[in-house]
Specification:
Order of helices and strands: HHHHEEEEEEEHEEEEH
Radius of gyration: 26 Å
Strand order of the largest sheet: 3-4-1-9-7-8
Shape: elongated
Number of domains: 2
Distance between the termini: 33 Å
Structural class: alpha+beta
Number of helices: 6
Largest sheet: 6 strands, mixed
């Protein structure tokens, strides 16, 4: 996953300086093209073409014999069976495509889900502790490194097993905060850069799902009484065709639209 993160950093390097939407469109176009070629070479194009031809013939039959209810019912049954056959032929290529699409979406989420802080702006730091850890009695201490300062003392919420802090960015750049638990320390980055870089906003204990969906993020030691540490940033939004939208919708719309256009050009079934 580290290699994939490095690859995306390299691909998006030209778009770091304030061209986030352009970078997102660039990756979406590449994804649409790669997915189309992957579908083409993992599917039985001849069988799919034959299935589509049958479906067209059955629709014509349905129109020609629309006055005969028995023929209409038989034609509808044939259309349904042929559609199911076409979907069956598409199933394996679709499953194969899911894996790279998920990996791409993970990388895009790291870069386009959150906006970074500007000097003077604050972010909420939410610390979720393990069950049995008394947040009212046990000491949790948050220390800020250079470039970041505390904007409020910790607010302890016993019912939710949470402690919340506010931190303020003082100097642009990527800085860190450190949470002391009494049994160790957990560091979290605070992002205030003007570059398009991965933003790790959540730290959890090591697991397969974390390695897959949050690659490269800080990890909480297994013996620490902390379940998660989350820094709440503002969500990033884009203007696409005059509408405000998240990176996910922009990615899906652009990649599918480009893939469809390429499909018609290359005559992929």
């Amino acid at each position: 996953m580290g290699a994939l993160t490095g690859l995306f950093t390299l691909l998006l390097k030209p778009f770091e300086g304030g061209h986030a939407l352009a970078g997102l469109i660039f990756i979406s176009i590449i994804t649409g093209a790669v997915m189309l070629f992957l579908f083409r070479f993992t599917s039985n194009q001849e069988a799919m073409k034959a299935a589509k031809t049958k479906i067209g013939a059955y629709f014509l039959e349905l129109r020609l014999y629309s006055h005969d209810i028995n023929n209409v019912m038989r034609s509808q049954g044939k259309i349904l069976r042929s559609n199911l056959g076409y979907m069956k032929l598409s199933l394996i290529p679709a499953v194969i495509m899911i894996v790279p699409v998920i990996l791409v979406m993970v990388q895009l989420n790291l870069r386009y889900a959150n906006t970074q802080l500007n000097p003077g702006e604050t972010a909420l730091v939410k610390v979720k502790v393990d069950q049995g850890f008394d947040v009212m009695r046990n000491n949790l201490a948050l220390e800020c490194g250079n470039g970041v300062e505390k904007a409020s003392p910790g607010v302890r919420i016993a019912q939710l097993n949470e402690v919340c802090y506010k931190v303020r960015l003082v100097v642009p750049g990527v800085h860190s905060i450190t949470l002391s638990t009494g049994s160790g320390e957990i560091s979290m980055p605070i992002y205030g850069s003007d570059r398009l870089i991965p933003v790790f906003s959540v730290a959890k204990k090591a697991s397969f799902s974390e390695a897959l969906f949050n690659p490269g993020s800080p990890r909480i030691p297994a013996d620490a009484p902390i379940e998660s540490v989350e820094v709440k940033y503002e969500s990033m939004a884009f203007s696409l065709f005059g509408f405000k939208t998240s990176w996910l919708w922009a990615f899906l719309i652009v990649s599918f639209a480009f893939g469809l256009c390429l499909k018609l050009i290359l005559k992929v079934e």
